[in-house]
Amino acid sequence: MHADELVALLKARRSVRRFRADVPSDELIEQLEEVARHVAPESEAPFRSYGEYFVRFEAAPVVIVPICRAQRVLSHLTDEGLPERSRELILAMERDSALVATSLALENLLLTAHALGLGASAMTGPLVARDGLVEILDVPTGWDLVAIVPVGWPDEEPRPTDRKDASKTMRWIR
Description:
Layout (H helix, E strand, L loop, with lengths): L2 H10 L13 H11 L7 H6 L12 E3 L2 E2 L15 H32 L3 E2 L9 H8 L6 E2 L3 E4 L22
Antiparallel strand pairs: 1-5, 2-4, 3-5
Helix pairs in contact: 2-4
């Protein structure tokens, strides 16, 4: 894919929240999962077990629920002599690194869904019911929900959203 094709794909992708009743094939959903994230062998069984719950989200025929957990890269190497603020910063870095990595995988999933003609939307609003969702989905201890992603054949064609000018959302430091 050339850069101009990628830019066109990024500009064309929309969040779809209304879906037709027909369900995308398992092969298409597996393709989305494959590009979003490689599931470690020890996590595959719990990951696959969530499948029966994917159809419980509104009218979407499929719902994917990305989860993440902080990777202990430094926190297990510290002792009680480390200042509390330093410990907090390390824990935040570990948590945020997992969230960023999962969010990047989620964007891959959304772009691939769009390229395949599927509609999808990363929704965080439903996470206000996080405790209930964690219980329903039997999310393993130590893992957290990142978003709820309904996927299906679009039954709408959302119009482009207004975008802020880049000069208003970034600052150059030279």
